Amino acid sequence: MVGNASRGRLHVEVRRQGASTVVSPSGELDHHTAELLREPLEECAGRSGARIVVDCSRLDFCDSTGLNVLLAARMIAEAAGGSVHLAAMTPVVARVFEITGAGAVFTVHDTLDSALAE
């Protein structure tokens, strides 16, 4: 699956790379833009055994709505025997995961390459 969606402050690209689906949001992930990520992420997560890597390297901001989108996708993926990995978080996004403790429920990789190599 290859595709993309954008609405002003958030652009989302989806592509297959090896055994993984890479979802790359860029811009601001918040209440107003979360649906742009939710739809492709949940579609991918619902596939049996899906391995999703969210490349966070171009994500400038993530609020609680964005965090909930990622957590919901993780739950959907795990219920279908799959997984959601986070890669290359920017410091501002990593801080949200640190403050909330949500980083403990994801497999987090320093780089996209390391996430794909696993």
From TrEMBL:
Superkingdom of the source species: Bacteria
Any Pfam family the entry gives: STAS
Residues of the STAS domain: 10-118
Membrane spanning residue stretches: none
Family recorded in the similarity comment: Belongs to the anti-sigma-factor antagonist family.
PANTHER family per record: ANTI-SIGMA FACTOR ANTAGONIST TM_1081-RELATED, ANTI-SIGMA FACTOR ANTAGONIST TM_1081-RELATED-RELATED
Name the record gives this protein: Anti-sigma factor antagonist
The species this protein was found in: Streptomyces luteosporeus
Taxonomic lineage of the native organism: Bacteria, Bacillati, Actinomycetota, Actinomycetes, Kitasatosporales
